[in-house]
Amino acid sequence: MVKHTQNATYRHAHGVDIAYTTDAQGNFASYTSAVGRVLGYKPGEVIGRHFTELVREDHRESLRRFYGRQFLRQIEVTYREFPAVAKDGSTVWLGQNVCLITQGGKVTGFQAIARDVTKSHRREAICKAHRNVLELVANKAPLSVVLDRLCRDAEQIMELRCSILLVKDGKLRPGASPSLPEDWVKFSDGVPIGPTVGSCGAAAFLGKRVITREIRTDPNWAPFADRVPPALAACWSSPIFSANGEVTGTFAVYHHEPGEPGEEEIELIELSTDLARIAIDRAREEEELRKLHEDLEQRVKERTTQLEAANAQLIRAQRLETASRLATGLAHEFNNWLTVIQLYSQNLGKADCTADRNPAAGIRQAAERAAVLTRQLLAFGRSQALHPEMTDLSSLVSSSAGIINALAGASIKVTLNLDPKPWAVHVDQLQLQQALLNLVINARDAMDRTGILTVSTANVSQDGAEWVELRVADTGHGMDAATQEKIFEPFFTTKEPGNGIGLGLATVYGMVKQSGGEVSVSSQPGKGAEFRILLPRAGGGPADDPATRMPRGNGETVLVVDGDSSIRRLAGAVLRRLNYTVLEASSPAEARRRATAYGPVRVLLTDLSMPGGSGWELVDELCSHGSARAIIMSGDGPAKARLSGNHASYLAKPFNAQGLASAVHDALSIHAPK
Question: Which end of the chain has fewer CB within 10 Å, C or N?
Fold first, then answer.
């Protein structure tokens, strides 16, 4: 006996619903005429067939399992939506309630009431597709990815083929065609739009929807008839407008049979076209932003290049100005000393010479002043030859206290704040002392010869390194920021003309930098100034002062090579007085001849730049493989860095007799017999 609930359900079925029954195996036993209206089957046409034969193939197995569970567990009522296949092959989504038919406690069949839910299902699918596309756009997915997803979703909903073509420069370009033949997509690429160019070309040109009911009989398709794939029978195309009204593409739907779109299909085409517009507009905006960003970057790059070029030009101009001041000041000083030398030289040997009874001493004094200026220039250029020693900075300042007080004068109070145990520094003591005295003189002049001068030393740790600090502070009139920026430039001075040439602080800067240190100034107008020198800490302690006596030779042979005859002659005279055998040569070629003719040479004393060759060549030829020792005499400080091995040493020009004697003695000591 059939339960009352099933009979009641059956009685409530009305004409728009499909009502049917099956046996226990799921084969159709009876159904209402609505099956014909919804699915197109005639009365009795599907009796005895299994109900899943009317289900779309991709859903059949899941539906069998679903109703198998209802049968085994005897679930009284279930609801399920699924795609059914109409007699014409189209898909109709059904939503159905299924009740068990039982008799004597045993399931004998099923009773179902199904309704066409295609519209609601399609609407839900459209909303889901809409969300998917908008998420891709929001996540800045590539345009090709967004359009492909849009076409695939539309194809699944309408069960038709879809295509999006872009319009660029009046021609159709591929956008997305996931299910169209590749040959047809390639053929469409580059086709100019026009009023009779198929459906897509005409829709893009006219700016309105173009519906081609049958492609093979439509005159607009005649030029492409032999290229259209057989599976494409009808085409419905809508233009895609940008936000500003420009046609940017077309959305097309292809049907496998001739026909026109229904209301639901037109609605879906319009929605898909609108989504394509959003995606294309966003992609175009991003492309414009990218180009704008690239253009901005290029402009910034060009502007930066212009600024760098202008800065380089400014630096060159500043260097030229510095070089000009350097040349002018140098010429002025040397002209003064050359005038003195010329006047003294002209008066030598004249009977009426009464201006100065010792012209030779005057010439020597002028030459010494020129040598001091040369050393200052080399210090400024960091090219002077330094003779660094392990030095106690506090001891050096303390030993200079007398001369500091003398330079400062009686009206200036001098205070020494010296660290009793400073770390050792490796510096040229004479050059450092000269730098200290230059700072003292500047401090004295800044205080108008009255005030307090403080010299201090200290051990400091700064920037991860250890330094020994030397400070010279005064209570003078101070400096503004503009003056401080130029204070270490050569020939820059705030003193009155004739009271200084402006090399003092430049030489301090050069000496400190060449020694690996740092120098800075801190000052404000009316509040004095403080100069701070930092010298890197070295190991060990100060060395003893060198002996001042001139060592003598034992007849050893010294070859003196210099293009300047005066230097060659005077150096030879000094060495002969010190009991050396001296050979002289004015060029490398002459030096080779003299060395070959005379015999082994113990010491080669040579300049670097000479007519006919370089001093380095002589060093390589005469000293590299023998017992001879080379001494390079030059005013080029960086040349010292080129010395290699133990067969060459350096003697800086200008030098005196003491320096020459010590250099030759040291060279001979290296190869002394053991």
Answer: C
Which 8-state DSSP code applies to residue 549? Answer: S
Q: Residue 161: in which H helix or E strand, if any?
A: strand 161-168
Q: Are 98 and 112 in contact (CB under 8 A)?
A: yes
The CA distance from 141 to 43, in Å, is 52
Are 239 and 209 spatial neighbours (Cβ–Cβ below 8 Å)?
A: yes
Note the pLDDT tens digit of each residue in 181-233: 888 888 889 999 999 898 899 999 999 999 999 988 999 898 887 888 888 88
Note the residue count of the chain.
674
CA dihedral 318, 319, 322, 324 (to 10 degrees): -110
Q: Report yes or no: 394 and 420 within 8 Å, Cβ to Cβ.
A: yes
Which tokens sit at 562? 């210099």
Q: Which of 48, 108, 114 is nearest to 86 (CA)?
A: 114
Helix (H, G, I), strand (E, B) or coil at 519: strand
Alpha-carbon gap, residue 30 to 21, rounded angstroms: 5
The strand pairing partners of 558, in sequence order, are: 582, 603
Q: H helices within 52-117, ranges in order?
A: 57-73
Q: How far apart are CA 27 and CA 5, in angstroms?
A: 22
**In this predicted model, what pLDDT tens digit does every residue of 288-338 receive, in sequence order?**
888 888 888 888 888 888 888 887 777 666 655 665 565 666 666 666 666
Nearest to 543 by CA among 376, 370, 392, 412: 392
Residue 562 φ/ψ, nearest 5 degrees: -160, 140
Alpha-carbon dihedral angle through residues 617, 621, 623, 628, given to the nearest 10 degrees: -120
**SS3 letters for 183-252?**
HHHHHHCCCECCCCCCCHHHHHHHCCCEEECCHHHCHHHHHHCCCCCCCCCEEEEEEEECCCCCEEEEEE
| Residue 107 CB neighbours (<10 A) | 14
Rounded Cα distance between 165 and 253, Å, is 11
Task: Determine the Cα–Cα distance for residues 338 and 344; give it in Å rounded to an integer.
Answer: 10
- Token pair, residue 114, equals 């199904």
Rounded Cα distance, 193 and 190, in Å? 9
Q: pTM (2 decimals)?
A: 0.41
d(CA 413, CA 453): 6
Does pLDDT of 8 surpass 50?
Answer: no
d(CA 247, CA 58): 39
CA distance 591 to 588: 5
